[in-house]
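Below is a filled-in request sheet from our internal design queue. Each sheet records the structural input a requester submitted and the sequence that came back. We keep these sheets so that new team members can see what a complete request looks like end to end.

REQUESTER: design group, bay 2
PRIORITY: normal
MODE: inverse folding
CHAIN LENGTH: 314
BACKBONE (tokenized):
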């Protein structure tokens, strides 16, 4: 992963040693070890700077993009086929522009290129959006909704994507073939403490050592006192939080999702005259495993109402 960060930096053109060091997010001792192993192979000198060798350019240059216009256009067509939302599975979907903002962020820090990616819960169809870029080694989507699974597999076949979807119920023990097999995991979990304990534990069990976890968390339904408890969970599982992107992902208002915020309207002691607009957004959190992640919850669990709802639910 970190080797690619150096290569991406030099893909922009020749740079000095200190310029590279100041730009990549790598520990200093690991950086010099990588540079030593890459020098003369992927990296060669050019006066007082360093650049990619011709072999490295052939091998890696197709892994970096300036934009995803074509992919966005195709993805929008796919979303027209998306099944309707159902409260049975606690569904809602992200705005397309925010899905690709996330992909760009992941791309820019080399969390996509040649990685095995797992999407846990995919009514957003994130696996297809990412698959259209053809950057990941492979993408697996796990979801409980057969309609979502069928659509993902159908579109993956149609567009020849390295994407596959399978059914998984998060209340059940994780099948052995998925344990600690993935480099990167993307998910939008429920936001109760009970729910997150189970959800994030499944994520920990899916990721390899040094694996990367992306998930969304709101402030409107999760005050910082809850964030503090979630942070403690992540620490115990072996994750370090590396990035938080504020107000990164928006959920559009729709006929199905318009139910959100009803408590805020009912509790208001004045008339809210503005028509409801897209207001429900999550902050994107990136975590990195500092060891093989350790789930706090293993095996099957019976899901109760407290898995989905707490006093902050809107």
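RETURNED SEQUENCE:
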């Amino acid at each position: 992963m970190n080797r690619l960060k150096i290569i991406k930096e030099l893909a922009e053109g020749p740079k000095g040693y200190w310029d590279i060091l100041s730009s990549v997010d790598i520990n200093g001792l690991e950086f010099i070890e990588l540079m030593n192993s890459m020098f003369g192979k992927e990296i060669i000198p050019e006066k007082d700077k360093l650049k990619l060798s011709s072999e490295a350019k052939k091998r890696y240059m197709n892994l970096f993009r300036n934009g995803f216009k074509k992919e966005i256009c195709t993805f929008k067509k796919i979303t027209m086929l998306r099944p309707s939302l159902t409260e049975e599975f606690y569904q809602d979907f992200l705005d397309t522009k925010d899905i690709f903002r996330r992909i760009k962020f992941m791309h820019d820090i080399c969390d996509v290129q040649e990685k095995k990616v797992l999407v846990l819960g995919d009514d957003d169809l994130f696996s297809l959006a990412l698959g259209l870029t053809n950057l990941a080694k492979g993408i697996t989507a796990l979801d409980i909704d057969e309609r979502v699974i069928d659509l993902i597999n159908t579109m993956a076949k149609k567009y020849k994507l390295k994407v596959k979807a399978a059914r998984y119920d998060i209340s059940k023990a994780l099948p052995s073939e998925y344990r600690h097999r993935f480099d990167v995991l993307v998910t939008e979990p429920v936001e109760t403490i009970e729910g997150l304990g189970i959800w994030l534990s499944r994520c920990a069990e899916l990721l390899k050592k040094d694996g990367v976890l992306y998930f969304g968390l709101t402030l409107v339904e999760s005050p910082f006192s809850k964030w503090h408890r979630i942070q403690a969970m992540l620490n115990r599982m072996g994750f370090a939080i590396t990035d938080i992107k504020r107000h990164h992902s928006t959920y559009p208002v729709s006929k199905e999702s318009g139910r959100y915020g009803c408590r805020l309207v009912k509790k208001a002691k004045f008339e809210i005259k503005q028509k409801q607009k897209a207001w429900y957004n999550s902050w994107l959190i990136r975590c990195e495993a500092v060891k093989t992640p350790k789930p706090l919850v293993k095996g099957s669990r019976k899901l109760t109402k407290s898995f989905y709802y707490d006093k902050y639910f809107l």
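SHEET NOTES:
- The chain is about 35% helix and 20% strand.
- The first strand starts at residue 43 and ends at 46.
FILED BY: M.R.
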